[in-house]
Amino acid sequence: MDFFISQFISGLSITSILLMIALGLAIIYGTTGVINMAHGEFVMIGAYTSWFFQTQLGMGLIASIIPIFIITAAMGFLIERLIIRHLYNRLLDTILATWGIGVILQQLIRLTVGSELKYLKIPTYMAESMSLFGQQVSIYRVFIFLFAIAIFILAWFLIFKTKFGMKLRAVTQNKDMASCFGINSGMVYSSTFALGTGLAALAGAFVAPLKSISPDMGTNYIIDAFMVVVLGGVESLIGTAASSFIVGGTSSLIASFSNDTLAKALVLVLTIIILRIKPEGLFTRKSRS
Amino acid sequence: MIKIDIFKNKFLLYGLFCFVLFLFPLIVDDPFYLNKMSTYICFGLLAVSLSLSWGYTGILNLGNAVFFGLGSYCMAMSLKLKTDSIHTGSGGLPDFMVWNNVTELPWFWEPFYSLSFGIFAGIAVPVILAIILGYFIFGGRAAGVYVAIITLAAMIVVYLIILDQQAYTGGDNGITDLSTLKLGNLEFDAYGSSAYYLIVSVMTFVLFLTLVITKSRAGLIFQAIRDDENRVRFLGYNVGVYKTASLCISAGIGGVAGMLYTIVMEFASPTFMSISLSLSVVIWCAVGGRQSIFGSFVGALVITSGQGFLSESETFLHTWTLIMGMVFILSVLFLPKGLAGIVDQKRK
Prior knowledge:
Shape of chain A: globular
Largest interface: A-B, 43 and 45 residues
Oligomer: heterodimer
């Protein structure tokens, strides 16, 4: 039983990271219809920015959260303005363009920072363990979980309780009609992209102390995040959260019995089978649109 | 005077092109360059395979390299079992298995003692994977972006499994130290002109095969599916079956390209089914012209030989990848039909 609890808790922190990544991916896809292939690279950029702030500028992890979000969100905003914007009438081509952006970001990091692995320490005040359900749990992992929950609630609030959220939902439902009512849909698209990339970068900043930092680290997370989006559909935030927990939970459960590779393979098989039965995702109602 | 437009008469264009490549060894009689040229042609065939599924049928297969990799491994397994016993452990056990403390040849290696089985598997394994993927993806009528994601994920999973099962697949090192291919009395040395002629012959066959397919009734339905899937469905065609068929043909050609690549490279490596190769294939097709088989082939040939001509230092490779990324984005933005699109426009 103890084994399960400790597995569950360590799985929970990875699931929280996955939730942050998938949330950004799902918000972008749900609003603009663009699958952002460079999303994993923004996780990587987030990790590198965090590394830069902490080792080169001597800032703390908490203090660097907001600057990391602002910098990467600005990058997302610019990329949408410069490139993605021109491809909304060719949605499959946005996959190609964002894939190209991902390659460019990876290579820029390789050429400037270098290919070798970088490591970050967990902040000292969070490096200790605490007792939870009779288990010794690292405070940092609990912190990640709480932070992800906070981000999720914040995203929900932003989308359902603010004026921006109302515009975003209007543009998602019908872009042309929303524009007729005076909503600047182009601005909504850019902001959505900025929000999504910012979330990915935060996930990267938090995962960095748990794993090593490398230019191709994004790939490890992006496939799981894709599976979350395919499984959950993009109709609701709750769907994204639920499927994050399904994918993250299943992977860490299987991984505890065998290894990561088998876990990834089984999650993919599961996703493909579900895609056959419910092509719109698990958490969507049948609609006529 | 009769004016023959070779861009209009594709049979003539392909014939001329294949003829020139057959003459290539007469002009360049250097084993190193012949070997290089052979590898570029293998990549060209891989681009043809993607052009058929993506450019003609609209299936954006981001995991196209998995077919190439599987074909390559099938050929490598057969050739590995043909190596002299000096290179292998007791009872003809491949060397990497001995290092990994495997005592007995695993059951799925057994049939590869037969070279014909290896060649058959090099096509059959990718096609079976394509059928399975097609059944699930197209049967459920998944949206285009989901197809892209699932194919990419499937490739990564196969890649991870091969890395993980080091004892049976050679893991990160792949399968090395292969014997040369012998068919009957013919021996295909990777650096000799025999292997080059083998590859150009297969290339000629594949190019004309795809030409026939694209001109056939099925080829027209492929293109109709690409342009408007629902309309084809309303006309009573089973779109899922046609899409799966297109993916299978693409997988078969990818497998053949992979087998040929192993013959000239003399090893198989997990990088043959990596994301970066898959991305490269997409770039070759996008730049050359995805909706043109010939454009994709030439795109692959030009880009890979360009990459080969320039130095191979690591910094350079990173810069090259960076430049290719930019070229890719620019061509997606401004030249959706690639260079072949420009040629088409000039003629009008």
